[in-house]
Amino acid sequence: MTSPYQHKAHDGINQDVVWHTGSITHQERAALKRQVPVVLWFTGLSGSGKSTIANAVEQKLLALGKHSYLLDGDNIRHGLNKDLGFTQADRIENIRRIGEVASLFVDAGSIVLTAFISPFISDREQVRQRLEPHQFIEVFVDTPLAVCESRDPKGLYKKARAGEIKHFTGIDSDYESPTQPEIHLKTDIDSIEACAEKVVNYLAARGYLGL
Amino acid sequence: MTSPYQHKAHDGINQDVVWHTGSITHQERAALKRQVPVVLWFTGLSGSGKSTIANAVEQKLLALGKHSYLLDGDNIRHGLNKDLGFTQADRIENIRRIGEVASLFVDAGSIVLTAFISPFISDREQVRQRLEPHQFIEVFVDTPLAVCESRDPKGLYKKARAGEIKHFTGIDSDYESPTQPEIHLKTDIDSIEACAEKVVNYLAARGYLGL
């Protein structure tokens, strides 16, 4: 058994970096959970329905006895990434860290869902490249800006239009739509329930949900 | 149901931060895994046996059908924390992020083991404070410096003594021993097997391993 990592003990802080025989493998963790670990990466405008659909997917997975975890603003922005601000560099670092944590959860055997606007193709591609091809499923929550703005559950679009919030995605900052998302959801046509079912059916049809 | 977090949408980047009803609870995730989630925080000198014992504990937990995950240099230093260097500030940030990721795994229902020297009491205490009292178990791998140095599996002590590595814990940087660790292991007296068994017995006796 070899490590997937290079081990260069070039400094004291890397003194722990060595491969230990007898480690539990990724396959053993996944087998215990009877599923194929994967990242469901939800992307879309604010108010598009990412978190709502992701929560509905998780409910369905739990009912099937599957092990999932949702990373979103609630548990990331106030914890791991609370040191990050709003510069371009910090936005990139925000997505990079989320991708790394998602990768750890995949290694642990989980089906991990992420619900962040993640407006830039390059950032999403970087996460995709970090994983095996079958471990990254891009879920485009494709809700028209006008619909998101009419929902405006937090009044953020109103503030953005008034100039009180700068660099708001869809208003004065770009959203780059996925060109070939694995799953394409349209919440202005389908219900939350139907969207969530589409995601779970995608997983089931491709063997992610195991036995 | 209320969120444990404050939600202040004070800027565009926080536009996703809102509570969604219908989220799966921490309790539901733990129930699916039939265990009580917890962090086993291994601390000790380089070569003390942290990772080796943690791996042995994981093997035992897997045999019991329990869901665990090990955070160590292998999967953290080359991924999430690869942007961090060796300054005092970066060392603190290193441990902070590991604590935050461990907290996410606990929220997901896992028994998470961490194997880092983590030499400073203040850093370890910060992680402890981040969690509920019963969710943090400090495991002191108390191996005398002379024993660690005689093992020196990676030749790092030799390099540190030669001055080739600076700020090496135990040589020219302090290791602050835990004053009241929940579990105290002495690898110069007990075998790896005995140490691992002590940890698992601790968990079992306190109900962490559930049904």
Automatic annotation (TrEMBL), chains A, B:
Show the InterPro entries listed in the entry.
APS (IPR002891), APS_kinase_dom (IPR059117), P-loop_NTPase (IPR027417)
GO BP field = hydrogen sulfide biosynthetic process; sulfate assimilation
Task: List, alphabetically, the Pfam families matched.
Answer: APS_kinase (PF01583)
Q: Which residues form the active site?
A: S118 (phosphoserine intermediate)
| Swiss-Prot/TrEMBL catalytic activity | adenosine 5'-phosphosulfate + ATP = 3'-phosphoadenylyl sulfate + ADP + H(+)
For the ligand (ATP), the binding residues are G44, L45, S46, G47, S48, G49, K50, S51
Q: In which pathway does it act?
A: Sulfur metabolism; hydrogen sulfide biosynthesis; sulfite from sulfate: step 2/3
Enzyme Commission identifier(s): 2.7.1.25
For this UniProt entry, which residues form the secretion signal? Answer: none
| Coiled-coil regions listed | none
Which GO molecular function entries does the Swiss-Prot or TrEMBL record give?
A: adenylylsulfate kinase activity; ATP binding
In terms of domain of life, where is this protein from? Answer: Bacteria
The enzyme class is: transferase
> Domain APS kinase spans what residues?
37-186
Q: Which UniProt keywords apply?
A: ATP-binding, Kinase, Nucleotide-binding, Phosphoprotein, Transferase
Q: What family does this chain come from, according to its entry?
A: Belongs to the APS kinase family.
The record describes the protein's role as:
Catalyzes the synthesis of activated sulfate.
What name does this protein carry?
Adenylyl-sulfate kinase
